[in-house]
Design goal:
The complex is a heterodimer of chains A (163) and B (184). With 163 residues, chain A is an alpha+beta fold. Chain A has helices at residues 3-15, 23-31, 47-93, and strands at residues 38-40, 98-117, 123-139, 145-159. A three-stranded antiparallel beta sheet of chain A has the order 2-3-4. In chain A, strand 2 (98-117) and strand 3 form a beta hairpin. The longest helix of chain A is centred in the middle third of the chain and has 47 residues, at 47-93. Chain B has 184 residues and is mostly helical. Classes of the chains: A alpha+beta (163), B mainly alpha (184). At the A-B interface, helix 1, helix 2, strand 1, strand 2 and strand 3 of A face strand 1, helix 1, helix 2, helix 4 and helix 5 of B. Strand 1 of chain A pairs antiparallel with strand 1 of chain B, so a sheet runs across the interface.
Chain lengths: 163, 184
Amino acid sequence: MNDHDSDLLQRELERLQPSAPKAALMQRLRAARLQVRVAVVQRESTLGDRLSRWFAEWWCLPAGATAVAVGGLILSLREAALTSTGPALAAQAVRHTYTPEKVDNYLVEARDLGVFVGSDNQPYKLVRATWVDEANYRGDDGATRMLVTNSREQLIPVALEVY
Amino acid sequence: MPRPVPLFGWIDWNKVPVLVHPQAEVWDGWLEANASRLLVYARQQTRCAADAEDVLQEALVEAWERSGGQAPPIALVVATIRRRAIDLARSLDRRARREDTVVADLGAEPWFEPDLADGESRRMLEDAVKRLPAAQQEVVTLKTWSGLTFQEIADVTGAPLNTVTSRYRYGLETLKRLLNEVMK
């Protein structure tokens, strides 16, 4: 199915309007509002509140930042250790190699984000496109195949005509 | 003149939680805007219209409570509908096994508004949507009528983003094939 067919079909789907709930159901849903109960405490902040906020702002945040830094250091050390043994392990693990045979790109969504005026005073429409890439790989034995799908987004500025 | 002593004066009423409901106009307006599209998804996830309505109502109440009484994001409501529909299906299956009965599919109600001008092709398209494999049908429904992004659908369904976009593409292909079969 090409992108044009896909667009037409998506437009046809969007023209289908979900049927409105029956009056009885809407009445039931409106009445369900009273089933929603949210507990709210309305009071002024006490000395305890102010102290805990002070503690959160001046002690928890630096402590959290330190914890993140230490965690990052541990992860980087671990990665370095893995990298040193990685090639040897990878060489043992290779059974087949696959070479790309065919790659198809499918546009599954194009959404207008808005219009902006560039530094050249030219208006542009910004479109966010979502693609699905399907790559077919063939194994070195000639028989095995592998399909790898990947989705990606692309921001495309489209120059607008000025009359 | 002595000041009156309040009843239960030892209670600090400012610290007692008060149960509140959402404002009626906010709730009703939100329902008007979203009930139709959420009902389509609830119907898609359940086996009959009555179950869809029950699941929708329960999910709305839960999602609004989780949002602190404010209008919840659609993705949260959709995720709640999905979880409650799964729970309901499991309990129905258990009961059916216990009672040795068959859970009937009574979902013959139309999902979409009839269009008098273009009724036949709309009906064919609706039938084709209903015949999609469940995973593809879910993604197409959430994308087209719930207005979720692919990332939100991935979060709701717990499937990787690549899988979600592929299901959407395969869903459109399957729809095209089903429509071509009917046209022949």
